[in-house]
Amino acid sequence: MILKKQDCGKEKKTSPIIGLFLFIVSIFLMLVTGPLGFVFGVFHQLFTKGFKGIGEFALKMAVSVDQLGNVIMQHLFNVLWVKKGGYPFGNRDETISSALGKNKQLDTLTVFGKIIDKILDTIDPNHTLSSIDYFVQPSQENS
């Protein structure tokens, strides 16, 4: 099998109408098929890998939700948590914690960003620094 190398940083250009339509369809499909997929996935993991499998499944979903949050909240986070010239939030392939960690390294977190980082570090020591995904670059739109 030949794998095509993808550049995660490049955002695909599309018309606003197509983008909104695809967003509405994706939400509809998630609401209709999501519960069935979730229940099936929990039982599948439970019977194939035990409780450890459920934890793995839950972690994958948590990362996906986190990536969605990074996209949805990008404009607010970029205003509230990052100093001018810092690493931007909003890459669809990156978690909020990874972007926070990159800004922590760059010393570009605002007071609010440092508070969020401190809260996460209290829950999980060095959370944002350990969450950095070095393979993800800022998207063209956010650079």
Name the features:
143 residues, mainly alpha
Give a structural overview.
The structure is a single chain. The protein has helices at residues 16-49, 51-72, 74-80, 96-106, 111-123, 127-130. Helices cover 64% and strands 0% of the residues. It is mainly α. The two termini are 34 Å apart. It is flat and about 45 Å long. The model has no long low-confidence stretch (mean pLDDT 90). 17% of the residues are buried.
Q: Count helical runs.
A: 6
Shape: flat
Radius of gyration, in Å, reads 17 Å
Helix/strand/pairing class, anyone?
mainly alpha
Fraction of residues in H or I helices: 55-70%
- Low-confidence spans: none
Mean pLDDT, all residues = 90
Give a short overview.
The protein has 143 residues and is an all-alpha fold. It has 6 helices and no strands. The longest helix is centred in the first third of the chain and has 34 residues, at 16-49.
Summarize the helices and strands and which ones pair or pack.
Blueprint: H1 16-49, H2 51-72, H3 74-80, H4 96-106, H5 111-123, H6 127-130
